[in-house]
Amino acid sequence: MGCCGTAVSPWRCAAQARGAVAQSGLSLDDIGGRMGLFKRRCRPEAGGENGTLIAIRDVVKTYRTPTGDFDALRGITLGFRRGEFVSVVGKSGSGKSTLLNMLTGIDRPTAGRVLVDGVDIHQMSESRMARWRGVHMGVVFQFYQLLPVLTLLENVLLPMDFCDVVPSGERRVRAVALLEQVGLGDAMDKLPASVSGGQQQSAAIARALANDPPILVADEPTGNLDSRSADVIFGIFDVLAAQGKTIVMVTHDDSLAARASHLVRLVDGEVAEDAALRAAVQPAAGAGRVLADRTAPALLRGSMVSSGPD
Question: Using one digit for the tens of pLDDT, what is the confidence trace for 58-75?
Fold first, then answer.
């Protein structure tokens, strides 16, 4: 059973899912546009005051150790707008991963608040937090965290089955569309161990998009990849941000970080730099869902299309 009390889908074959697409009489483009509509029925579009989607206010995180207290975060205050691509950089031990843990609700601050779309997430119980995170935030890990006994398709289906946001009749088609979008249309029936690291990370991104969250959080998503694979993964994030997703990514790679729209540099648990590198794309209303950008790289083109303007 999933976190929302739903049974895990028994689908095990991408060919069957493709058959469902064919039987629907619609193209993946048509289905992608229609699938985006369910979110507006289930929850409002994200966007806080003055366009700020994520507000981190005076966040402190102190760990108790045998040798004394250690302040991992020291009064962090930051704000991220919808559609921004944020890179968080800093040396090991600077507090980058701790900051992401505060943002995702995986850990709780010692003091301060984290508001997402006006909601103080750390006022939630653990169970409510898990449900909230499953709908509003996709998380991409450095080591992929795909379930090894499930195919790539099944890994993408899993969060949809757990959280029960996507209508059951649309889940299989959506999973196929997402995997097609990240270039894994021919690999979706394979187990994670039989594909490359770059392909596993692409599948992890597809899984993070399963419930169409407005925010993607990634902790060193290119840390274990070669430069070519890292560039592909970064390109996926760049296109998603242009389509209205808010991306917050921790990275050690300054050259990749410089390609984001917003740079945050942490030093010893404090903000040493908080700078806009370029203007974030301001998408049209409703564009927070996954869309197809006709100017995007081929691996992202034509899988899911909005019924409205880009």
Answer: 999 999 999 999 999 999
